[in-house]
Description:
single chain, 328 residues, alpha/beta, 8-stranded parallel barrel, two-stranded antiparallel ribbon
Amino acid sequence: xxxxxxxxxxxxxxxxxxxxxxxxxxxxxxxxxxxxxxxxxxxxxxxxxxxxxxxxxxxxxxxxxxxxxxxxxxxxxxxxxxxxxxxxxxxxxxxxxxxxxxxxxxxxxxxxxxxxxxxxxxxxxxxxxxxxxxxxxxxxxxxxxxxxxxxxxxxxxxxxxxxxxxxxxxxxxxxxxxxxxxxxxxxxxxxxxxxxxxxxxxxxxxxxxxxxxxxxxxxxxxxxxxxxxxxxxxxxxxxxxxxxxxxxxxxxxxxxxxxxxxxxxxxxxxxxxxxxxxxxxxxxxxxxxxxxxxxxxxxxxxxxxxxxxxxxxxxxxxxxxxxxxxxx
Length: 328
């Protein structure tokens, strides 16, 4: 597995990261044994960059990852997140970046993960009611205490990044980025490069849509959160399916899968970009790791831009509430 450095932080990770969210929630029923086997297979293949968060489960995913890495901690670049708070109703969400919450969240995550420190600690969403300087200041204290090695933000906008970086170096920004979510190209990628911040692209396969395996809305499990995503609903589903068909045809001609082509495109956007694919099954892990063998020429990249230009996807990437907290 090739490796990449996250900005100027000095933190090196595998060129592809494994997102563990779907192992515990959101994408239909899970299988803990298969999920743990998938994590082990990823580590065996050199994928040392594992991503989780306290909200996933909630809390269950950190516990699962903790079990999976027990006895193998030294092989892992471990990332987790804090900041999204869920209410009694699963649909309720709020954001908390207050210093006391930062400290208590970190201690709770360390306990669930069964580790003494995490390598990368993200603020999951920016709290509009707490100055970013206060949140990052509390996160910096965690670094000084040895509980965290590097700091990150998720879905933060350029101004927030600049203010945060004045308090403490930010190693990575994690934001959605794929062929159907190209918003970071407007200003965020440039801001990261200006500030020396690495870019971690979550949902590089468009929540599985770019894999070409979803053909009907009813292919989604009853408890799959994508049923509530605008891009998977109504006429948007078919419009987006038509876009993916071009990627499917190009992948077939190239001798790779649509997932591999979509991941290779994200990887080709810069050596400071690390795609974070999510899977809970070993067979999809193996497919995604095959991306390492897919090289895209300048002409192929141009062709992909023609097939899937910026803004081509139909529908917002989150519902109204979710969109309030992105690129803040």
